[in-house]
Amino acid sequence: LEKSLIVASQKKNVYKIKGRQSKKLINNGDYYISLAWQEIVKVTNRQGDIWEERLIVKTLPDCELTKQYIADEGLFEKEIKMYTDVLPQMENLLEDTEKSGDRLWPRYIGMIPYNMLLLQDLTAKGYKKVDRHLGLDLEHSLFAFKAIAKFHILSVAIKDELMLQSEDFVRFGPIENFRRSDYFLKKLRVLGNTMRNKWESKWYRLADHLVNNSEEIIMRFKEICQLKDNSFNVLNHGDLWISNMLFKYSEFSGKLTGIRFIDFQLRHYGSFALDLQYLLHTSIQTDVLKNHMDDLLVAYHETLVTTAKKLDSSNLKIPSLADIKAEMKDKIFYGLLMASLLLQIMLAEPLEELNLDTLLQNKFINEIKPLSQKQQDRIRTILEPYINSDWTSL
């Protein structure tokens, strides 16, 4: 820790740590793979000046199954390489075109390969999360869509230099890991049985469809995530939901002024629509999803165009708005499946503190409280337009 701070704080000439205080950051319902805590560190330079540095420490969890899962998927290595190799290249592009402070991620401080990552504490700069139960309103949704558009086009600008089309980046863990697929199968069947036993009769057809065709639906999921050369392919965040973004507001007006993305362990190269569908169906308020989809896609497209112009790169091929809408329609199944599989977990409160070991053992399904009527209604609103659809061919 001390060595990393000294290297990262050269301008302040950090010499020694005088004291430190730790605070747990992961709460029930956050469902992060790693352990994370805040370090408030009192440091000094050789002149005797003393001040505080605040940083976030991410490290491996204690749970053995989770450790093995992280090792099998290379999750820590992937995120560390994002901060050491990929994001610095994006920052260089930003510095050439805009204020360097407009990065979309926390500042990297240091790491220990491949089990510890030290990052800037964004809360010390005024960034905060939005309540995951509330979801993102239109203002926050537009801000998020513009930010992820900038992230996506920056990745396109560096894709050849960093070989983002290589197997290491194309590989998307959820479609490769059979243990997780088993979990998906069970979760689909649980959802179908819940629809059949507790929801209105109009849901019975979809309930039976999910239960009887769960394996085919999972195969469709794997198919839709495959890289296609004719898509607008980008480096996806991969886990773009409300708990993986922080927002900043003006102290005077309360106006939204900034956004930062965190947790890049599931980054992968593929269709831009995977990130957008995931965000739409896990994190955005249903009235925004129903009434402002066009506004969000226009904001995304306009940001692609304006950022590409600032980058002054003639080889960046930007899809038309019509192409973006067509790709989003083609990937709607991905969003629906994420809502079906993940929202009940994302919105529920565990009966006790749970960890990924519980999830990997398939115990998690039975260890969450029933959703409130409001949260059930949110899931129904998302799924209802597709209540009579064949999910194996969406």
UniProtKB/TrEMBL annotation:
One Pfam family cited in the UniProt record for this chain: EcKL
Q: Which GO terms describe its molecular function?
A: kinase activity
- Mind listing the UniProt keywords for this protein, alphabetically? Kinase, Transferase
Keyword Chaperone set for record:
no
The CHK kinase-like domain is annotated at 117-310
Q: Which SMART domains match?
A: CHK
Keyword Amino-acid biosynthesis listed? The answer is no
Q: What name appears for this protein in its UniProt entry?
A: Putative ecdysteroid kinase
